[in-house]
Design goal:
By secondary structure, this protein is mainly α. It has one domain. It is 53% helix and 0% strand. It has 10 helices and no strands.
Length: 223
């Protein structure tokens, strides 16, 4: 399972043409896969911003995320899920499969490849697309963590999916902020964000990330 200690990375090659606007569904997937649990957590996060003693830190994190491409944000989300599972000794092949699939998002180079990735995600036993966490996965999660684990899974999946079918919103970064806050709420260390600036938001989706860059991210995440 991927570790949570990410430190540095290098510049990737120029990205392919963005997927946004080329997949033909226009309004994004917000009404399709945004779950009740994740929406509740987003509302809770929004209410806490005004009185949060860590609001300044949260703002600093958000400013960095706003400079990172969707591909980079998706990988950060995958590492957050890895960190959470590592912290609490949660292990299951279906979790590993989902994490590997989220990493693969960063190598998508065309709309057809995205559609294939999307379909393969839905075939995963654990996919974060609104269905309950499978019982066999839930069985390895401590009871007091099960709701937050479900929200974390759905949030990290939404990072890549939220705008995938044509929208251009703050949703991907909102869900990544939610994943980070869920981790921090359980004293789970989150990855260093600076290396992911190598995949800048100026390149929009930032896909595909060069394989050598992903290899560097994996090496650093596995330390």
């Amino acid at each position: 399972m991927t570790s949570c200690r990410t430190r540095t990375a290098r510049q990737h090659h120029p990205p392919a043409e963005p997927l946004r606007g080329r997949l033909g569904r226009g309004a994004g997937r917000r009404g399709v896969v945004e779950s009740i649990v994740a929406r509740r957590w987003l509302l809770r996060l929004g209410r806490r911003r005004a009185c949060d003693p860590l609001a300044e830190r949260s703002q600093a994190i958000r400013e960095i995320l706003d400079r990172i491409s969707n591909a980079g944000c998706q990988v950060i989300g995958a590492v957050c899920l890895s960190c959470f599972c590592e912290r609490f000794g949660i292990a299951h092949p279906d979790i590993d499969s989902l994490i590997a699939h989220l990493w693969a998002f960063a190598r998508i180079a065309s709309p057809d490849e995205f559609v294939a990735w999307d379909r393969a995600l839905g075939r995963n036993a654990l996919h974060g697309l609104g269905d309950p966490v499978p019982d066999e996965v839930l069985a390895v999660v401590p009871a007091e963590l099960q709701e937050d684990f479900g929200a974390l899974v759905e949030s990290v999946v939404e990072i890549g999916m939220y705008d995938a079918y044509g929208a251009n919103t703050d949703g991907p970064r909102d869900f990544l902020m939610l994943a980070i806050r869920l981790c921090e709420g359980h004293n789970v260390p989150v990855p260093n964000l600076e290396p992911f600036l190598r995949s800048p938001q100026t390149s929009r989706w930032g896909m595909p990330v060069a394989e050598e860059t992903l290899a560097q991210w994996r090496l650093l995440a596995n330390r």
